[in-house]
Design goal:
Pfam families: TPR_19, TPR_2. With 122 residues, this protein is mainly α. It contains 7 helices and no strands.
Length: 122
Amino acid sequence: MADRNPETHVIDFRAAEQLLAARDPRGAVKLLDSVIAEHPENTAARLLRARAFFAAAQLRPAQLEFELVLEREPDNAFAHFALARTLERSGQGARAIRHFRLAAALDPRPEYLEAAGFGSED
């Protein structure tokens, strides 16, 4: 579109964040599609779109987006964790374990450690 500019894309990105927070993941995806079409290298937009796909139960598109993010940012603990949740939800538990463990190794947050099976021993 001729009237689209970088400021419009920032506004769309922020609006997509709000839509996702308001539990409208499909609306978020729609806004992010135009941002990513213009800026396919924008990893933050792709990560947000992956989260929106996941929230909309569109697991295959979510998986593909999370994997693309991880190709660009292999040390992104959240992306590993979210990909693992996506794989787990789509019945690929064995593949999910690897990403849960990578997330926990990269960032020892309690939820990552617990998902990886590294929870504290009581």
